[in-house]
# Entry
Amino acid sequence: MIQTTPDTAPARWRRLAMLLSIALSALLVTLACAPSGGDDGAQEDSGADQAYTVRGEVTATPGQNGLTEDQIRIHHEAVPGFVGYDGEVVGMASMTMPFPAADSIDLGELAVGDKIEFTFEVNWDASPGYRITRIKKLPPDTELDFGRREELPGEKEVAETEPTPP
Ligand SMILES: [Cu+2]
# Structure
């Protein structure tokens, strides 16, 4: 015998509506986290997959500490809208990392401790896969925020699977 329960269809619709509203709020959160750099944020004509404008502090200059002549090392702020290889927004935590620069960028003006705003492009099929395409020095008294890890959507899962230190 086939049992038909009249409540099944409305229950399904309610569940669907709930799922849709969850998906919608997730989308809104994602959009809110995306970099809002105006024409700084997107540079589609360069062939890059993504471009991000970020602030940071120079921690090593070209030739220092294992860097090549076209790289600098930057302690950068978090990049909440960072898109991973699979196209998902995973975010990038604040960290210190080397950045190769495009040929057009003059790194010779920079010194350790300089506060900067820079744009880097990501091209997943290129080598290097990312490079700086713009650098602007910020006033030395600029306050940078290196502590926004909890806002990164891609980091929550990592944090939950990491063993808790004793
Ligand atoms: Cu990074």
